[in-house]
Amino acid sequence: MSTLTVMAESHPESMFEAVLARLDKAAKLMNLSDDVLRVLKHPSKEVKVSLPIMMDSGKIQVFEGYRTVHSTHLGPSKGGIRYAMDVNADEVMALAAWMSFKCAVANLPFGGAKGGIKCDPRSMSVGELERLSRAYAKSMKDVFGVNKDIPAPDMGTSGREMAWIVDEFNKITGEDSPGVITGKPVSIGGSLGRDAATGRGVMVNAMCALKKMGLQKNEVTAIVQGFGNVGSHAARLLSAEGVKIVGIGDHTASFYNEKGIDIAAAIDFASKNNRILKGFKGATEIPSDQLLISKCDLLVPAALQNVITEDNAGKIQAKLIVEGANGPTTPEADPILNDKKIIVVPDILANSGGVTVSYFEWVQNKAGYYWTEEEVNSKHDHKMQIAFESVWNATTQFKTSMRIGAYITALQRIEQGVMLKGAY
Ligand code: GLU
Q1: Measured by CB atoms within 10 angstroms of the end CB, which terminus of the chain is less buried, N or C?
Q2: Are 218 and 344 part of one and the same domain?
Q3: Which residues pair with 66 in a beta bridge?
Q4: pTM of the prediction?
Q5: To test the ligand 1 pocket, which listed residue (15, 358, 362) has its Cβ within 8 A of the most ligand atoms?
Q6: Residue ranges making up the domain that contains 3
Q7: 289 and 163: one domain?
Q8: How many Å lie between the centroid of ligand 1 and the Cα of residue 164?
Q9: Is 319 a catalytic residue?
Q10: pLDDT tens-digit series, residues 249-298
């Protein structure tokens, strides 16, 4: 078992409790109405389904599928679908709430949702995954909708799964509605720039933060944990900006090279090596638990949740953390990082580039008119810079951390939606 998995599993606390802890803190500081707080503490819809799938072995296996809509006050709910063994109701609820806050921070006209299937996609055949994805889409036909609830990829899923899901959904409804899912392959209505968008958002947020801190990007060293869709694009784009990437790692191996790692070579290696870094020769292999605490200026946790904990937060050497993953820092680690004066650009801001370009994909699908990659990237960068500024301003105004500043920014917008739409 990898160190990353051990760290994630040894943290027994409920993820939704972790969301509520931060929500309470931000609500108190900004004086959020109790009514609004009460509404946001409950997801608006939770669906759990059993999915019997005929496996290649000829035996039926039953999978658990989830979709939780946390809020729809600012628009239809939006959020990815995760395929992983640790998917459970609590995790999906927490991730759905984060999507509400993430969409509000990025000022998108969306509420928040998340879905997942408890499965190990790496151990399944393409045929099994297709049957599972289609069965999930069918069972969620009344939940999803282009103006209702719009899924996208998350951990363990990609454009391939989105293509199966949109196809199944459209077969059931009898309409061609590409905007019901985002993160689709470009040839069937996906947006240019969507694949790299989360990593791009991490890079833009890092650039904004470095500027505020008065640091020169070409004098900065960085460690990126996670080398999947988010981590590999973040490392590539940071390196293109002149940042020296000294450490990288995934669930199979971690590497450090103080002279800098050739990221193009690492990406090339992983793409030819079953998408894993084990065996990479461009840097020295180090124990996985050393990666986050090795020397660097900028740390990008872009793998799993709960990897920065009270046990290792005190040993982190970075001055800036930009959270590419959802929930990489536990609430207990927050004060330790704050005491060390480490600036943390929180997940709901740092990784909102993905859902921002999902929004652009949805807009393009609705209009039936498609933008160039340059247009997508420039609109993305602009929106991300504005989101960063609004969080920075709330952080300064309320004299708090950027995490709480981001929650306040989101809550101010969601509060408007809840109050204006009212209750029975
Ligand atoms: N799964 C991604 C996230 O956590 C993207 C969600 C979306 O594009 O709807 O932000």
Answers
A1: C
A2: yes
A3: 48, 116
A4: 0.95
A5: 358
A6: 1-42
A7: no
A8: 18
A9: no
A10: 999 999 999 999 999 999 999 999 999 999 999 999 999 999 999 999 99
